[in-house]
Structure formats: C-alpha cells, structure tokens
Amino acid sequence: MTADPRQPLVALLHAYLHRYPQEQAEVQRCIDFVRHHPNCCDRQLWQPGHLTGSAWLVNTAGTHVLLTHHRKLDLWIQLGGHADGNPDLRAVALAEAYEESGLPQLEWVTTEVFDVAIHQVPTRGSDPAHEHFDLRFAIRAVGSETYAVGTESHDLAWVPIEHLADYTQEASMLRMARKWHCV
C-alpha cells in the first residue's frame, strides 16, 4: 500500500499549528481541507478551492521582502503559485520564487511553514471564484539581488519590511512581517 502524499502536508500544518496556536481556526480549516480532498493540489478543484505555495522571499540581509505587483490581482503580494498536482508545497514555493524573480540563488530560511492563509480569488474568465489555501515558506536570496520581472507581474520591488504597510494592508502580509521580526 502506498503512502498518502497528503500526510506530509498534514504534518507540516500540525507543526505550524503547534507554533501558532492562535491561528487555530484557519489552520484547522486548511488541515480539514487537505484531509477531505484527495485532489487538494489540483488547480481544477474549484469548490472550495486548491492549495498554493508561496515564498516570503527576503534579501540577504533579511531587511527587505521581494513583492510582486500581481498582474491578475492588481495587488502587491508575495511570490507564489499553483501546486499543479504537486503535494510538495516547499518545492512549489521554491520553484515559484525562482520563476517569478529570476534570482539565481535562493536558500531556505527554514523548511517549516512560515505562514498559512486562506483567501478568496474572484471569478476570472472561465475560472469561477474559489479559495487558495496558501502555505508560505521563508526563503532568502543569496548573492545577487537583481531580479527580473516576469509575465505574471506588472512589477517587482524589494520592499523594506518596516514599510510593508506602504504597499499593502492585507492582513496576512502584515502578519508575515510581524513573524519575520521574531525569526
């Protein structure tokens, strides 16, 4: 009998919940979603949604975070994207960070989940409104911090973490900034 590929996700989420028990409601909702949807990583799962992987991508000094001015959402947010069936959300977050930033060398700050957020994605074209169950990982740029703006972004910017609120008031983004100061 083969192991369920969702078990490592559930373990990551339980470890996260142990570190951040104050986020019980949202994290438990994410755990329940993963447990009840064998295809939770499939971007075609619209109801209620699907898993995504994101990167809190900091510069070498850890003073700035790289944000994308997302083309479809028209918001300044962290880099990240769809799992496309891959249950290894760490690998998804790292691949998205490389793809969306063009940075040549990245390293893990930690391989534990850095943040969990569930957010609504509006209807777009033939895609119905749905939710992204987003697992976020802390990653650091090593060496060069010269990025390349890709097709999914209007722009990218190294934003001083102390001034993140100048770019976004989104609660989970501000929560990641607070967490970063405790790492």
Walkthrough of the structure:
This protein is of the alpha+beta class and 183 residues long. The protein is globular. It has helices at 7-19, 24-36, 89-101, 171-180; strands spanning 49-58, 64-70, 76-77, 79-82, 106-108, 115-121, 130-141, 153-160. It has 4 helices and 8 strands; from the N terminus they run ααββββαββββα. 27% of the residues lie in helices and 29% in strands. Strands 1, 4, 5, 6 and 7 form a 5-stranded mixed beta sheet that branches. A 3-stranded antiparallel beta sheet has the order 3-2-8, with no helix packed on it. Helix 1 (7-19) packs antiparallel against helix 2. Strand 2 (64-70) and strand 3 form a beta hairpin. It has one domain (7-122, 132-180): Nucleoside Triphosphate Pyrophosphohydrolase, CATH 3.90.79.
Key features of this structure:
8 strands; Nucleoside Triphosphate Pyrophosphohydrolase; five-stranded mixed beta sheet; three-stranded antiparallel beta sheet; 183 residues
Distance between the termini: 39 Å
Principal-axis shape equals globular
At CATH level 3, the topology is Nucleoside Triphosphate Pyrophosphohydrolase
Whole-angstrom Rg: 16 Å
Average pLDDT confidence is 94
Structural class: alpha+beta
What is the helix tally?
4
Overall CATH class = Alpha Beta
**Sequence of secondary-structure elements:** HHEEEEHEEEEH
Largest sheet: 5 strands, mixed
CATH superfamily annotation:
Nucleoside Triphosphate Pyrophosphohydrolase
Q: Determine the strand fraction and express it as a percent band.
A: 25-35%
Helix content: 25-40%
- Quaternary structure state of the chains depicted: single chain
Number of domains: 1
Residue stretches low in confidence (pLDDT < 50, at least 5 long) are: none
DSSP summary, beta strand count:
8
